[in-house]
């Protein structure tokens, strides 16, 4: 390590790890990403990306790829009661009216982020097992015997993060009592399905969501239902399409028409974590679900990991090895409050969706009013505040 600009080791080649790698490379920094899986990839389902994150993807030059591989979600997006009666429109723009909300297949998003990196930047088949600091060097060890060293280590290793335990005492994630059935249906099998809408149906204790992926050629679905005791034990497993159909029997017939086409589905038990009081220790910091795992009821886990990545890269831009420790703390200060709000907002929204709230009229009014919250969420641009934080370091 002869240069004075910091070199960065990223553990985890998911959406958060791959995006921060892109954002750091865009600032001219050296990165190496280590992923435990033998090949990069993601589960066969969608992810909803919103203006607060698309703004950052554009900044690293990925706007055209999002247009190409994503499916733009339009203004005819709606919330319904379980029987198909309308509750309210869905806010899909920021408050300026900019519509940059897309459904993306997770595999497409990961592929797009990985292909944008320099050749050789990603090392698959590396499961991190340890972290050590030796003087000014941060060292990560892997199950296969390899060792990686850098000035900074970013733990982007997800909700079960190994690196998190080197920052904060181990704790168990919080189970929500809910599981999500996820999958995709080819649009040609449901020709009447609205091509560009985010649609959600809300019933007691359950909700059902769809949005388009891959230029509208796929419909993504997620059915959120209470967990039985067997589901609680498994994080992610194959789901039974018949069981999924039974869960939503008697709901809006449109849901039945979509679910009749489902051949395979998988289900994930939904967990989050309470906000961490700190997520940086010395040369090690956390990002994405490793730092602030959240429930999917605001569709923000991946979006927030991308905001984290842009904030961290912006703050590290003008650092050298002597200022890097202060820069990591500045990143954490900048991100902790916003991500904690999104974590608690996602919990509250899940309860609202499933009407554990009490009065359904009050609930419906809150759903309609939620547009204002979404606008504020989507308006947020992490870069100006990250630049200001970076200036305070010099
Ligand atoms: C049902 C559901 C729907 C969702 N919908 C949305 C949505 O619409 N929009 C949205 O923004 N978010 C959504 N999310 C949340 C989103 O999926 C996550 O927040 C996001 O994937 C987190 O990215 P990450 O990179 O931090 O973690 P992960 O995606 O978990 O990536 C972590 C990576 O680290 C690797 N790894 C783990 N341990 C190690 C190790 N020891 N060594 C090396 N590598 C390791 C893993 O293999 C993985 O590749 C949803 C979540 C669920 C469950």
Can you give a write-up of this model?
With 394 residues, the protein is an alpha+beta fold. It has 2 domains: 7-172 and 273-391, 3-Layer(bba) Sandwich (FAD/NAD(P)-binding domain); 174-272, 2-Layer Sandwich (D-Amino Acid Oxidase, Chain A, domain 2), CATH 3.30.9.30. Helices cover 35% and strands 26% of the residues. Helix 1 (15-26) packs parallel to helix 9 and helix 9 packs parallel to helix 12 (382-391). The longest helix is centred in the last third of the chain and has 30 residues, at 324-353. It is globular. The model has no long low-confidence stretch (mean pLDDT 94).
Q: What's the story with the biggest beta sheet?
A: 8 strands, mixed
Bound molecules: flavin-adenine dinucleotide
Number of domains: 2
Total number of β-strand segments? 20
- In DSSP terms, counting alpha (H) and pi (I) runs of 4 or more, how many helices? 12
- Report strand %: 25-35%
Mean pLDDT: 94
Structural class: alpha+beta
Name the CATH superfamily assignment of the largest domain. FAD/NAD(P)-binding domain
Portion of residues within helices: 25-40%
Mass-distribution shape: globular
Unreliable segments of 5+ consecutive residues: none
Amino-to-carboxy terminus distance: 23 Å
Radius of gyration: 21 Å
Set down the secondary structure blueprint.
Layout: E1 7-11, H1 15-26, E2 30-34, E3 46-49, H2 51-59, H3 63-69, E4 71-72, E5 78-81, E6 86-89, E7 102-105, H4 106-115, E8 122-123, E9 128-134, E10 137-142, E11 147-150, E12 152-155, E13 174-186, E14 199-203, E15 206-213, E16 218-226, H5 229-233, E17 236-239, H6 241-247, H7 253-259, E18 265-272, E19 280-281, E20 284-286, H8 289-292, H9 301-316, H10 324-353, H11 360-379, H12 382-391
Helix pairs in contact: 1-4, 1-9, 2-9, 9-10, 9-12, 10-12
The structure holds flavin-adenine dinucleotide.
């Amino acid at each position: 390590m002869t240069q004075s600009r910091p070199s960065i080791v990223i553990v985890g080649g998911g959406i958060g790890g791959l995006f921060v790698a892109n954002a750091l490379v865009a600032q001219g920094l050296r990165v190496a990403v280590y992923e435990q899986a033998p090949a990069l990839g993601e589960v066969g389902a969608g992810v909803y990306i919103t203006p607060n994150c698309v703004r950052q993807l554009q900044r690293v030059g990925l706007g055209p790829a999002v247009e190409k591989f994503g499916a733009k979600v339009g203004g005819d997006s709606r919330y319904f009661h379980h029987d198909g009666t309308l509750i309210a429109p869905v806010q899909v723009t920021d408050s300026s009216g900019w519509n940059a909300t897309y459904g993306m297949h997770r595999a497409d998003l990961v592929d797009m982020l990985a292909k944008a990196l320099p050749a050789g930047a990603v090392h698959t088949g590396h499961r991190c097992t340890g972290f050590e600091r030796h003087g000014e060097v941060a060292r990560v060890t892997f199950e296969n015997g390899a060792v990686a060293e850098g000035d900074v280590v970013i733990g982007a290793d997800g909700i079960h993060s190994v690196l998190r335990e080197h920052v904060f005492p181990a704790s168990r994630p919080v189970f929500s009592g809910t599981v999500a059935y996820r999958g995709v249906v080819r649009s040609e099998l449901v020709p009447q399905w609205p091509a560009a809408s985010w649609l959600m149906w809300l019933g007691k204790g359950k909700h059902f969501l769809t949005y388009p992926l891959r230029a509208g050629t796929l419909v993504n679905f997620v059915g959120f239902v209470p967990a039985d005791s067997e589901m609680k034990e498994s994080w992610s497993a194959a789901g039974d399409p018949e069981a999924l159909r039974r869960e939503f029997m008697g709901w809006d017939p449109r849901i039945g028409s979509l679910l009749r086409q489902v051949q395979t589905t998988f289900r994930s038990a939904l967990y989050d974590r309470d906000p961490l009081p700190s997520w940086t220790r010395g040369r090690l910091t956390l990002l994405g679900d490793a730092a602030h795992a959240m429930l999917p009821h605001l569709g923000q886990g991946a979006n927030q990991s991308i905001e984290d990545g842009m904030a961290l890269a912006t703050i590290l831009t003008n650092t050298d090895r002597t200022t890097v420790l202060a820069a990591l703390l500045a990143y954490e200060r900048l991100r902790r409050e916003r991500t904690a709000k999104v974590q608690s907002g996602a919990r509250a929204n899940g309860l609202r969706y499933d009407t554990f709230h009490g009065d359904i009229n009050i609930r419906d009014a809150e759903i309609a009013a939620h547009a204002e919250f979404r606008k504020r969420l989507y308006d947020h641009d992490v870069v100006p505040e990250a630049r200001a934080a970076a200036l305070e370091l010099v």
